[in-house]
Design goal:
Radius of gyration: 14 Å
Number of helices: 3
Helix content: 40-55%
Strand content: 25-35%
Order of helices and strands: HEEHEEEH
Shape: globular
Largest sheet: 5 strands, antiparallel
Structural class: alpha+beta
């Protein structure tokens, strides 16, 4: 199964899922699936901005001796975002509309991360 199908399957299983994106740490999207998102929200810009947050958070976790970053959740008024690194160079970003199922999203991102680790390993 390719990345497009994997991301579409994730979206189908999560209530309120608006987007799932595989991103490089450089901000370049590898693959994306977007549905049911407010046209006023630029998901590509948000995804690119998240790379800065991810890099800083990964560095902070390592520098403070906390270990590797495993997951991030950011809840805002219009959307919630969940992030899970696949490798140190790639990560999954999910956007949920208000009322989206965060617990199921966390579970599905973890499953996807485990499945994709081998495909992204160098």
């Amino acid at each position: 199964m390719g990345f497009t199908e994997s991301l579409a399957g994730i979206m189908d299983r999560i209530e309120g899922c608006a987007a799932v994106i595989i991103l490089g740490i450089d901000g370049i999207p590898i693959e994306r699936q977007v549905r049911d998102i407010d046209p006023g929200i630029d998901i590509d810009l948000i995804a690119t901005e998240f790379t800065t947050l991810v890099r800083r958070s990964m560095r902070t976790a390592a520098d403070t001796g906390l270990g590797d970053l495993r997951e991030m959740v950011l809840a805002a008024d219009l959307m919630s975002f969940l992030l899970r690194p696949i490798t140190p160079e790639y990560f999954l970003l999910m956007a949920l509309n208000p009322g989206g199922n965060v617990g199921r999203a966390r579970y599905e991102l973890r499953k996807a991360q485990l499945a994709m680790e081998t495909e992204f390993a160098i």
